[in-house]
UniProtKB/TrEMBL annotation:
A molecular function (GO) term: isomerase activity
Organism of provenance: Trichococcus shcherbakoviae subsp. psychrophilus
UniProt xrefs under Pfam families: AP_endonuc_2 (PF01261)
InterPro entries on file: IolE/XylAMocC-like, Xyl_isomerase-like_sf, Xyl_isomerase-like_TIM-brl
Domain Xylose isomerase-like TIM barrel: 49-262
UniProt-recorded name of the protein: Sugar phosphate isomerase/epimerase
Amino acid sequence: MLNITVRGHDLSGVASVKDLAEHTKKQGVHNLQLALGMSFPDMPSGAANLNPGMGAAIKRELANEDVQVGILSCYINMIHPDLEIREQLLQKFESYLRHARYFGASMVASETGCVLPEIQYTEDNFSDEAFADMVGVIRRLVKAGEEAGMLVGIEPGLNHPLYSLERVEQLLTAVQSDYLGIIFDPSNLITNEDYQHQVAMVERAFERFGDKIVAVHLKDFKVEDDQIIPVNLGEGLIDYAAIARIIAKHKPLSYVVLEETKDDHIGRALQLSLASEAKP
């Protein structure tokens, strides 16, 4: 079984926490990955704005519709080249770690960023220097997570220094903590040249560091002009059934986030999930 989760900002027409709760329930889903600034752009959600009352109020409103925050998003460029900006971003993430429990979240999530100011693909991210810089930052954030009793969920991707299964293993060796987990998105680690091997890659990931995988993103895709383009789950090339079986085998009831699947397509994806689980 899988614990299907949606990103709050994949639901349109949401102007309030009440709207978010109702739209999530309408799709038959009970778990959210919540990015405050993306779901509620008019609500201040910086490092100094989070507070226990905010978390408790959002948690209470969502619970009215049997919805909860599983993952609190704080996606930042944690290796931003401007050290003053970087410090502000890291302090924001640390604030999210301190306050996540009031929202009911089990982890705070981020990717690892980019050596450039804007996150994008560059082979400069693949250097040992960029990796070492990233490790130092994650070590700091994990320490803050340990102090707050909150998991730090790190998502690898080709646009980041954490760009391969090998680099993930190196990170986990360098930062050994029960409070560091991996949010695994197989579509973030494939290209137009190797997407046919997606299932084998997922199997390798669970074999090599499955004990550290704390959530999975399922992002369907198509290949267009040699690029991986996200689409709603069930409309692309991801081998959903095979990957779902691997997740269920290794991490039953794990959070599985339907990233880039939007609005009423979420309900259809949930039916796809249920149908997959019903097959022997």
